[in-house]
Amino acid sequence: MAAEKFTTIIIGAGPAGSTAAYLLAKAGLDVLLIERGESPGSKNMFGGRMYSFALNRIIPNFWEEAPLERPVVRETVTMIAGDKSISLTFQEDNWATPPYHSFTLLRAEFDAWLASKAEEAGAMLACNIRVDDVLLENGRVVGVRAGDDELLADVVIAADGANSLITEKAGLRPRLSPRQVATGVKQVIELPAETISQRFQLTGNNGAAHLFVGSCTRGIQGGGFLYTNKNSVSLGLVINAAELQRYPYQISELLEDFKAQPFIAPLIEGGRVAEYSAHLVPEAGLHMMPRLVGNGILVVGDAAGFVLNLGYLVRGMDLAIGSGEAAAQAVMEAKARHDFSQRGLSVYQDILKKSFVWRDLDFYHQVPHFLENQRLYRLYPQLATGIAAEMFTVSDAPPVHLLGKIMAQIKKYQISLTQLASDAWKGGRVL
Amino acid sequence: MKRLSTEQLLSINKFSVDDEAKHIILDRQICGRCESKPCRFACPAGLYSIKDGEISFDPVGCLECGTCRVVCSHPGAITWQYPRGGFGVIYRYG
Ligand SMILES: Cc1cc2nc3c(=O)[nH]c(=O)nc-3n(C[C@H](O)[C@H](O)[C@H](O)COP(=O)(O)OP(=O)(O)OC[C@H]3O[C@@H](n4cnc5c(N)ncnc54)[C@H](O)[C@@H]3O)c2cc1C
Ligand code: SF4
Ligand code: SF4
Fold first, then answer.
1. In A36-98, at which residue ranges do the beta strands (DSSP E only) sit?
2. Is the separation of the CB atoms in A372 and A221 below 8 Å?
3. Which of A264, A389, A415, A428 is most enclosed, with most CB atoms within 10 A?
4. What Å distances lie between residue A290 and A150, A298, A320, B54, B66, CA to CA?
5. Contact (Cβ atoms closer than 8 angstroms) between residue A33 and residue A68
6. Which residue's CA is the closest to the ligand 1 atom numbered 51?
7. Is residue A2 predicted with pLDDT exceeding 80?
8. CA distance A241 to chain B (A)
9. Which residues of B touch A280 (CB under 8 A)?
């Protein structure tokens, strides 16, 4: 049965899809936003924090109404080697005042809210529907199929996330390869708000973000994260899928190991696990990009691989929102010119290339390759904590100058100085 | 905190189980030829195991992450779909 025809059908009510739906509906176009979950967000998880600037352009002062957890004022990066760890902490209390730099949040609530904004603006939201495929007519996407239903549209937007079956089915990219993605797992651990503030030395409702690298993943490519929410912490690990393919480690067990580590255990003591979740994260950035524009179809957000992992920070939500915005603008232009062909829609790429999404992904395009360097996950955490241990340990042994201590550690781990210098140089250049 | 098994962790989650349709189906023959069987370790829900020398899979408890699909290097071994609309895991926090 084919009846109604929409200007745009958007597959997936994550931040990318809901942003596009919101902007298109606001401009008066008829939009259908389809979500397979019982409500938007019920299938989604992430580490924990969204940088504010992208959404603030779309919905100014969104923090006055959006369900958010805590504004982040403290950033910490920790290297772990066994029972030793070394951290770098940065605090900026201004980040707890408008325009709040970033917020921790929980997706079930947040995504539902963003989709409701699209609905308020006039988009039609259909939950509990899994899109099975795109409909093709003479090689052109003309709608979607969901079970026995066929729905028609001038243009379809694939906003179906990292494991995007739609871009594969539409022939826009081959199957994902393990190197290109990571698996993230997380536990939401409930604790009273005051306990969280005390343990993390936070004033009021301020929040903290914490990333870890080293033996939390047993030295394989990946890392750990901890974000403070109002009444819970989000604690998890992200590990490259090629590593999971190669090593017989169960990521759920690694997360339990991580929870038991001496610098994590006291932070979550007495907490109650409220949820365990898992999701893929795109890791290869522009190197895994599908064709962004097909005949009658556009790709946005994680489905396009738009995630930036710099090791010390992770961005995906803002890029999803930014690409959703670019897609909405492209559809409006295509509509104005009555041209939804591949050529008409290719303006999406032009708009995207002028946006922060492309600018930032391109600027850091060498980072994914740099982060494949195994030394970052085992050797360098060992080296850094080894040097720190020498610095801070006092005993009856004769003292040694700092340089001597450093050289001793470098020798101990058999690191070549040229290797170290080259890695440091590369890191400094690509990051 | 007490250590939790993967089963215990999954039991905390909310699921709407689909009794009629399986969203992930394995081809026993192809799996039989797979030596390393990385799905056994890579699945964050631990749903792949070996029984009587063969791979055994139970879709209940699936977190719908797609990891098994990505790490399986034998084309055709896994037929992978998301669960039917409304079924499967229901994240209350995410
Ligand atoms: C472990 C982890 C940690 C992360 N940490 C951060 C972080 O701290 N900060 C940050 O900014 N980003 C982070 N990210 C990345 C961020 O979550 C993503 O970039 C973002 O969610 C992408 O949004 P999206 O709308 O493109 O896709 P998604 O949020 O994945 O939304 C896709 C939607 O499509 C729906 N869908 C899929 N297929 C279908 C179908 N066939 N039919 C109907 N509906 C469908 C899904 O149910 C879902 O609602 C993290 C990701 C992970 C996994
Ligand atoms: S599902 Fe794939 S990885 Fe697992 S046993 Fe079968 S062929 Fe091997
Ligand atoms: S999709 Fe994820 S949770 Fe489900 S079976 Fe595959 S690996 Fe396991």
1. 49-51, 72-81, 84-91
2. yes
3. A264
4. 25, 10, 15, 36, 18
5. no
6. A46
7. no
8. 7
9. 65-67, 70
Q: Which residue's CA is the closest to the ligand 1 atom numbered 33?
A: A12
ipTM > 0.95 for the complex: yes
Q: Which H or E run contains A365?
A: none
For residue A3, is pLDDT > 90?
no
How large is the greatest C-alpha to C-alpha distance in chain A, in angstroms?
85
How confident is the model over A113-158, as pLDDT tens digits?
999 999 999 999 999 999 999 999 999 999 999 999 999 999 999 9
The interaxial angle of helices A317-336 and A15-26, nearest 10 deg, is 30
Q: Give B24's DSSP letter.
A: E
- Angle (nearest 5°) at CA A255 between A249 and B45: 65
What single DSSP character describes residue A278?
A: E
What pLDDT shows up at residue A102?
98
pLDDT at B66 > cutoff 70: yes
Provide mean pLDDT across the span B85-92: 97
pLDDT for A1 beyond 80: no
Establish whether residue B56 lines the binding site of ligand 3, counting it when its CB lies within 6 angstroms of any ligand atom.
no
Distance B63 CA to ligand 2 centre (A): 18
Residues B59, B47: Cα–Cα separation, whole Å: 7
The residues with which A88 forms a beta bridge, in sequence order, are A77
Task: For A204-229, write each residue's pLDDT tens digit.
Answer: 999 999 999 999 999 999 999 999 99
- pTM recorded for the entire structure: 0.97
Show the beta-strand stretches assigned E in chain B. Answer: 14-16, 24-26, 48-51, 54-57, 78-80, 88-90
Mean of pLDDT values over A328-349: 96
Token pair of B88, please? 């499967």
CB distance B70–A181 less than 8 Å? Answer: yes
Distant-in-sequence, close-in-space partners of A309: CB < 8 Å, separation ≥ 6: A281, A283, A315, A367, A368, A371
Q: How far apart are CA B72 and CA A178, in angstroms?
A: 9
Helix, strand, coil abundance in chain B, percent, nearest 5: 25, 20, 55
Tell me how far apart the alpha carbons of residues A256 and A279 are, in angstroms, rounded to a whole number.
17
In single-letter form, the type of residue at position A260 comes to A
Cite the beta strand spans of A197-270 per DSSP E.
207-214, 222-228, 232-240
**Residue type at A194?**
E
Q: Average pLDDT in the A305-324 region?
A: 96
